[in-house]
Write a structure and sequence with these properties.
- It is built from 8 helices and 25 strands.
- It is α+β, with helices and mostly antiparallel strands.
- The chain has 2 domains: about 110 residues, Sandwich (Immunoglobulin-like), CATH 2.60.40.380; about 300 residues, Metallo-dependent phosphatases (Purple Acid Phosphatase, chain A, domain 2), CATH 3.60.21.
- It has an 8-stranded mixed sheet with strand order 12-11-10-23-24-25-20-19. Strands 13, 14, 15, 16, 17, 18, 21 and 22 form an 8-stranded mixed sheet that branches. Strands 3, 4, 7, 8 and 9 form a 5-stranded antiparallel sheet that branches.
- A hairpin with a 2-residue loop joins strand 19 and strand 20.
- The longest helix has 17 residues.
- The chain is globular, with a radius of gyration of 22 Å.
- The structure holds fe (ii) ion.
- The site of fe (ii) ion (FE2) has 6 residues, from loops.
Length: about 450
């Protein structure tokens, strides 16, 4: 009996190495598909995703109608010290043939090595009857105490499954490779409660470059031919384009050339009539307000950590790389992060605001150039950027409290943006971007 119990304990311990965790989903190329990714300490042969339609995400299921094979990939984590090394295993699978707007339950794993919990999601809607879309948006989300308030809010926000996607605009975990990759695991576990139910769409930040690059390329599975670096997708009346702002900062001229070819091709060929809104998201800001009251290069000292380089020299590099593209293709809305504060800018081109046909503090009707936002306050263990006392002349709103953004696009003409404080869910900024008949003609 004793030997049997020892064997049972050993078997359980070994099996736990294969248990799926860190489950998250993403939109697919096909409207009827949903991608799922997960990790385990060890890859296991025969891993699948099983899924089945349900009337409600709260339904319990014992049988799954469909099963699709997963595909494991392994990469080597390189700790910042470059001494510790660990293999990290990520499995991806596709849930296909989904009924638009239908609810599904799913699990990942295998009969032999164990299953994940049961999760639920809503398949992408067809938007024919109701084009309204809702997204949660933020960048610069780490782990630990600073991330707790926003994590709690995001779990609450997604309880009812009424969000169509979450945009994480770069910088995660701080950093994925730290402590033998355990920071990456902690971050992916932290987002699982909502990233397993709402498509979690990402862009690469500077914290997903260098030794963290492989984590970004392998842990996520965007509908992208560039390993998650750039891609596009449609929701409601919006064409979204994700891009990486990193190439000019790492002398990746060839990579930027490839990205620009993608952007040129994508934005010159997609159906603007069907998707009149064009929203792009990438990590580093083109515009943000510096803090001239600090010395700039010495400001990495808490609590004043608004890095002026980000909004001065680096923002100029980002503008040199992307602004003509956003101007040429008449982008409506540019979402950035990187600075750990919230800021909304006006409609801007070449460092000068371009008046809307009508505008007030919270409204722009008929913009002819993009409106810019910086949303980098969900919480992270790295730094904190207080409100700039020297805002740009076209800075329309700032907030420094931990928070996140909501993007609601009602139809072909009305886009609504708001910034939510995580501590009490109050709205710290709100903004209407409305197309006029003239601005629609710009497109
Ligand atoms: Fe960043």
């Amino acid at each position: 009996m004793r030997n049997f119990l020892i064997l049972l304990a050993l078997f359980s311990a070994c099996n736990s190495l294969y248990l799926p965790e860190q489950v998250h989903i993403a939109l697919d190329w096909e409207d009827t598909g949903m991608r799922v990714s997960w990790s385990a300490d060890q890859p296991s042969y025969g891993s699948v995703v099983q899924y089945t339609p349900v009337n409600s995400p709260n339904d319990t299921v014992t049988k799954f109608a469909y099963s699709n094979m997963g595909s494991w990939k392994t990469f080597l984590n390189m700790d910042v010290s470059k001494i510790l090394q660990r293999h990290i295993h990520v499995c991806t699978a596709l849930m296909s043939g989904l009924i638009p707007g239908g609810y599904y339950k799913y699990r990942v794993g295998s009969e032999m090595y164990g299953w994940s919990s049961h999760f639920a999601f809503r398949a992408k809607r067809n938007f024919t009857d109701d084009p309204l879309i809702r997204l949660l948006v933020y960048g610069d989300f780490g782990i630990g105490q600073q991330a707790e308030a926003t994590t709690e809010r995001l779990i609450q926000e997604t309880e009812t499954y009424h969000y169509d996607a979450i945009l994480h605009d770069g910088d995660m975990a701080y950093d994925f490779p730290s402590y033998d990759g355990s920071y990456g695991d902690r971050f992916m576990r932290q987002i699982e409660p909502y990233a397993s139910k709402i498509p979690y769409m990402t862009s690469q930040g500077n914290h997903e470059a260098d030794t963290a690059t492989l984590h970004y390329l392998y842990r996520f599975n965007m509908p992208s031919k560039s390993k998650n670096l750039w891609y596009s997708f449609n929701l409601g009346k919006v064409h979204f384009l994700a891009y990486t702002s990193e190439p000019p900062f790492w002398n990746q001229t060839g990579l930027q050339k490839q990205q620009q070819e993608f952007i040129d091709n994508d934005l010159s060929t997609y159906n603007r009539t069907e998707y009149p809104w064009l929203v792009v998201f990438g990590h580093r800001p083109l515009y943000c307000s510096a803090n001239w009251s600090t010395s700039g290069l010495e400001d990495w000292v808490p609590p004043v950590i608004r890095n002026n380089n980000d909004c001065l020299q680096d923002a100029q590099v980002v503008r040199n790389t992307f602004e003509e593209l956003w101007h040429k293709y008449k982008v409506d809305f540019v979402i950035n992060a990187h600075v750990h504060a919230y800021e909304r800018l006006a409609s801007v081109y070449h460092n000068v605001s371009v008046p809307c046909e009508y505008e007030d503090q919270n409204t722009c009707i008929g913009a002819s150039e993009p409106v810019f936002v910086v949303t980098g306050t969900p919480g992270n263990q790295e730094s904190y950027a207080p409100i700039s006392p020297t805002p740009l002349p076209f800075s329309m709103a700032q907030d420094a409290g931990w928070g996140y953004s909501r993007l609601t696009v009602f139809n072909s003409t009305h886009l609504y943006w708001e910034q939510i404080r995580s501590v009490d869910q109050t709205i710290s900024d709100w903004f209407w971007l409305i197309k006029s008949s003239k601005s629609t003609a710009y497109n």
